[in-house]
Amino acid sequence: MSQGIEFNRLMLDMRSIQMDAMSAPKSTAAVPELGGSSFSDMLGQAVNKVNETQQASTQLASAFEIGKSGVDLTDVMISSQKASVSFQALTQVRNKLVQAYQDIMQMPV
Question: Is the pTM of this model over 0.70?
């Protein structure tokens, strides 16, 4: 459940940054310093969170395979699906970033 809470917090942060950017005056030449972390920090945190989710899923599956008590098959499957969905989402974000970079590089100057 904490995955959803952190995702919702990330989305709220992104919307806040978007609203700040939209309300900023267009005539300023300097880039305003955002109150939160930078985009690269947020992306790094997202990658780390996906990695942690995958490691937790692997550990839970290993614990189930060796027959550790208290590990339920449903928990293993849910954890596996969370890891899969988070990795797919991260892959889609990466694909969009690469596409945006390619679009920008192809723009005439």
Answer: no
